[in-house]
Amino acid sequence: MRLGTLFLGVGLASLFVGALGGEKAAQKEPQFPLSLFAKATEESYLGDDACSSCHEDVVAKFKLSAHAPHSNSAKLPVGKRGCEGCHGPGQFHVDEENPQVVSYKKMDAKQVAAACLRCHGDTMKLSHWNRTDHAQASVACTSCHQIHPAEPAEGKPPADALVAFHAQPTPKKLLKGSEAQVCGSCHKKTLTQFKQNSHHPLPEGRMVCSDCHDVHPAKSARKDVDAVKGKCVTCHADKAGPFVYEHDPVAGWTGDGCMECHKPHGSQNPKLLTSFSRGACAQCHTDKLSRHFPGRSCWSSGCHVAVHGSNTDPKLLRR
Amino acid sequence: MALLAFSCVFAQEEGQSAEEPAAPPTVVRPRAVFDFSWINWEFNGNVRKFKQYATPADGWSLGEASYLWGNDVRNAWFLGAYRGSPEDDFWAGADLLLFDGTTALGGSLRRNKFFDPFPLLVDESEREVGEATLVQAIGPARLALRYQMDKQDQYFGAPREPLRQRTRFMDAVLGTELGDGRLQLGVSERTYWDRTNVLPDTDVVRYDAIVSQQLGPRLNLEGGYLQHKIRVGGGDENEVETWLVQGDLDLGEATTLGFGFRYEDLNLPTVQNAALRKRYSTTGRLNHRFGGGWSASVGYRHLESERIRSDRSEVEVPIRDAWTGRVWGRLGPNLRLSVRGAYDHLRGLPTVVSDDARALWWNDRASLQAQLDWFVGTGTIYATFAHGVSVNDDRDATLRSTSVALGGSFELTDRLSVFAEHQRENHRARAAGEPDFDAYFAGGVLSTLGISAALSDQWFFSGTYTETGTNNSNLVFEPGGNYKGKYWSLALTHRRPDGNELMLGWMPWRYLDRTNPFYDYDTQAFVVTAKMRF
């Protein structure tokens, strides 16, 4: 370990030196869309009334958006207020020779993130976003979020009409739909796993993707309510411990914790197990498979009922 | 039931491209929505298996009652909604923004009833979660407060004992921009108690501070400190301290290096058998974008723990090294390939203090996954192949797992879209001297189909079919190990030009447990839903 720490320390120090010294003076010009805001003066901003003269319906509907109270605030600096706070100075848009506007449908994911994080820097910085898998895969803020409330869909009905059979939570503010819909539009195979016989109750509306997953990295550390066992014990609190007698794979040193035995989305085995019944235990305790009370489940038979940890029995026979 | 409803939810989304997903259907939010439903469940068999996860409404229910209000003069916004049935499952919630959005109040209450799918009579389980949040802007900072109460009363088939647990969670976070970065300070308390008085009361208090800075044009660093104080049943206090440093370095226009180091110091006097004392984790990931739309990443993680042996005789240091690699890009204008591989190795395995001293853990694990997306006109075909191998050398045990998924979705015309996906999973397991080892690693098959059609400008039809099953030989004759489920869902919708809707649905579902017929059920639900917007 000491070698690893030394290696890390030397590495970090060299990174510091390289980053601070190498390009210290090389502050680049901001790129689009930040360049548009950078070159604007107060006179470049025309106000929402000017936008409304052409985009009346869009401006009118915007007041139903959860974004409106924030962006309509008169206390904001003029460059972050109203339509122009997101879409750029109106003067550049109406310039007949070179019309320019911040159009979120035409920008790439990096440009969209740069524009949104002009205001959302208190929750996340661009560098936080850039380190995520979503950013690496060019997923934009607007892939999941909608700022303007949409018109009722035309054509075929949304297939979620039947979800009324289970009470579903309302989608979070400014999301384009339920989390399962939004996430599932890309993660199709994962979504199908929730159709397995054993699954986390996401289809039933009892949980949402962000109960476990953090899209915005700045929030990730806070979701681990437990220092050792992480997110799962947020709901499965009886498995949190610490127990007088811990079960090694649950205690976390092998790395995968709960997922040593469970598949989080769905499984063909009961209780989201990676293997069936005694197989879950036998993947480590191979010697117990056929020579230790064969033909019965290890826990539902009433023996090792405290398989996640016990406060009374070292063999996990009682809770 | 849940499976089928879910398949309906995603029938439309699965018609979208994997790489450039079309936006999911946007939320329609008029000022008021009332959605009444009448459902009749024609039911035979084990109702507890049917209600394993939740209890849908039976008879009349309020599918949705919601009200949305926005005021651009007072800069306030409100959305309140109630869904479900007071007798069965329900969800209620509201969000209110005030004072230019500087004050955000939120609250929700949800209740679900469900059952342990046991063949004999078992009491109904219930979970109720209430939550309240307040987010207040204070100058450049933001204070977020959260209170949550989680009540779970769960009853199981014998011999399992019931669980009547309560968890109260309170959280306060102050976040602000700080220079070219941010600072976050937090404190939270989680209190657990068990009303059956079997499990000890547990109280966890956490303090955390996280600071990040952009240092120069290329380096972003984030540092954090977390402290957990855990008291179990009035015993000695357990304490876990965590230090972390992570960041990103731009090595050029197309190359970034992500890195992280995490150190945990654990003092767990409650634990009397093997316990962790320290844990170190070092991670690094190099990402590079090549020309021609190809990218690659290489990652490494080193996890090292100091583990006190259960007989307290020695501290052992198991080490896990994990490597990952991924390459993704376009093979052609309409063909995208993503290949990822992983290998991890455990060394310094702890001595096993039991009658069989051979190491218990998979010491080597490797996996390879490939996904191909083919964009064809208005549709996408996708295929995934994954193979993994786990090896325990000490016990001469090997587990090989293979899974494939083949799916596709198409907008055949403006009026007709279809999707289908087939997933198959197989395992081969071997352990020295255990011929039946393989029987406990069951394969499974899942197939799902869907169609959505506009019959006219106002009439629409959607239908899905999902089938699941296993090929488990189930030597222990336990339920849920050898089954077949077939779930249909068919819906005909009439939507008026003003947005009001009437929907008729029929859902024949069947679940068959080949080992224990007491788990079978067969149901046909008839549904009428009227959705009104104002």
Protein model, in words:
- The complex is a heterodimer of chains A (319) and B (534).
- With 319 residues, chain A is an all-alpha fold.
- Chain A has a domain at 226-310.
- Chain A is built from 16 helices and four strands.
- Chain A has helices spanning 2-22, 34-38, 48-52, 56-61, 68-71, 82-87, 90-94, 109-116, 126-130, 133-136, 141-144, 179-184, 188-193, 220-223, 248-251, 278-282; strands at residues 198-199, 245-246, 266-267, 309-310.
- In chain A, the strands form two sheets. Chain A has a two-stranded antiparallel sheet with strand order 1-3. In chain A, strands 2-4 form a two-stranded antiparallel ribbon.
- The model of chain A is unreliable at 21-26 and 159-163 (pLDDT under 50).
- Chain B is mainly beta.
- In chain B, 2% of the residues lie in helices and 65% in strands.
- Chain B is built from two helices and 27 strands.
- Chain B has helices at residues 2-9, 47-50, and strands spanning 32-45, 59-71, 76-84, 90-98, 103-114, 125-138, 141-154, 163-177, 181-194, 202-215, 219-232, 237-250, 255-267, 275-289, 295-308, 315-316, 319-332, 335-347, 364-376, 379-392, 397-413, 416-431, 444-454, 459-470, 483-495, 501-513, 521-533.
- In chain B, β3 and β4 (90-98) form a beta hairpin.
- Chain B starts with a helix and ends with a strand.
- The chains are: A mainly alpha (319), B mainly beta (534).
- The interface between A and B is large, with 143 and 226 residues.
| Envelope shape of chain A | elongated
Structural class of chain B: mainly beta
Given as residue ranges, the uncertain stretches of chain A (5+ residues, pLDDT < 50) are: 21-26, 159-163
Number of strands of chain A: 4
Which chains make the largest contact?
A: A-B, 143 and 226 residues
Please list the strands of the largest sheet of chain A in the order they lie side by side.
Answer: 1-3
Structure annotation, total helices of chain B? 2
Shape, per Cα inertia axes of chain B: globular
- Tell me the fraction of residues in β-strands of chain A, as a range: under 5%
Note the quaternary state here. heterodimer
Please write the string of helix (H) and strand (E) elements of chain B: HEHEEEEEEEEEEEEEEEEEEEEEEEEEE
Helix content of chain A: 25-40%
Range of helix content of chain B? under 10%
User: Could you tell me how far the N terminus lies from the C terminus of chain B, measured between alpha carbons in angstroms?
Assistant: 31 Å
